[in-house]
Each structure stands twice: as C-alpha cells, then as structure tokens.
Amino acid sequence: MKKIVKLLTAIAFAGALAGCANTAPVQQVNATVAGKHTAEQVRTAILKAGVQRKWVMTDAGAGVIKGRLQARDHVAEVRIPYSANSYSIIYDSSLNLKAADGKIHKNYNRWVNNLNQDIQINLSAGANL
Questions:
Q1: Please, which pLDDT band fits residue 82 given cuts at 50, 70 and 90?
Q2: Sign of the alpha-carbon torsion through 91, 95, 98, 101
Q3: Closest by alpha carbon to 65, among 75, 53, 78?
Q4: Which residues pair with 76 in a beta bridge?
Q5: What is the distance between the alpha carbons of residues 114 and 111, in angstroms, rounded to a whole number?
Q6: Helix (H, G, I), strand (E, B) or coil at 128
Q7: Is 49 helix (H, G, I), strand (E, B) or coil?
Q8: Residue 129 banded pLDDT, cuts 50, 70, 90
Q9: What pLDDT is recorded for position 125?
Q10: DSSP letters of 51-96?
Q11: In whole angstroms, what is the distance from residue 75 CA to residue 12 CA?
Q12: How far does the signal peptide extend, from start to end residue (predicted)?
C-alpha cells in the first residue's frame, strides 16, 4: 500500500511540474529604431506587422497602439507606445493564458517575439512603408 501511495504522489508531483513547464516570464519588448524614421513610419511598420501576424491593431491615442490577438479561446492584449526612435510591446491583459505572478503561457512570448521581428523587418524595408 505504501508503494502505491508513493507512486501516486510521484505522479502527482510530476504532473504539477509538467503543468508549470507551459509558462514563462512575461516578455516585455523595448526596442530602439535603427536608422532615420518618422513616428508615422514606425506606426505604419507596427500596424503592418500586426496585420501580417493576424493581430487586431487600433490606435489608442497619440503614440500608442493597442494590439489584440485571439487564437481559439486564448486572447492576448498588448499596448505598443512608439516614437520615431523606439517602441515597446507591453503586456496589457489576457484570457486563458495562465497569466499569474509575472508568468504567462509560452505561446504569448512566441506571439510577441514574432510581432517584434515583423516590426523590425518592416522598419528595415523602410522604403515600402
């Protein structure tokens, strides 16, 4: 009987650890814009990247864009303040992404990283903005 209890305890512990493996610290992006761009060009690069990655992007005041991504029953929302020299991608809220204590489902970080990469690509393409 003791062996069964130990085995069940070990399985429960392993299951708990496996569940934690799906989360990671929330990634915040703070990027410097290389080259000479206007704030409008940075805005356009962000909006274009959002469309490319299926984010819904909306203006939220001067120099700020809000982004929302829905993948099945998961939702991520970010705030993107920008200027001619820099931009940030800041976690705002989420649904069904296990967000707690500064951690979130790993997919969120992948989505934000992909969005950031596309913004950088759009800025480097510059002439097409």
A1: very high
A2: positive
A3: 78
A4: 69, 94
A5: 5
A6: helix
A7: helix
A8: low
A9: 84
A10: HHTT-EEEE-STTEEEEEEEETTEEEEEEEEB-SSEEEEEEEEEES
A11: 29
A12: 1-23
Provide the Cα torsion 78, 83, 86, 89; round to 10°. 0
Q: Provide the token pair at 39.
A: 């704030």
DSSP string, 103-124: EEEHHHHHHHHHHHHHHHHHHH
0.85 exceeded by the pTM? no
Neighbours of 52 (CB within 10 A): 14
Give me the domains of the chain, ranges plus CATH numbers.
23-127 (3.30.310.80)
Residue 73: C-alpha distances to residues 69, 94, 95, 96 (Å): 10, 11, 8, 7
Tokens representing 92 are 């705002």
Mean pLDDT of 103-123: 96
Residues 77-113 as b/e (b if ≥16 CB within 10 A, e otherwise) read bbebbbeeeebbbebeebeebbbeeebbbebbbebbe
Output the furthest CA–CA distance in the chain (Å, rounded): 72
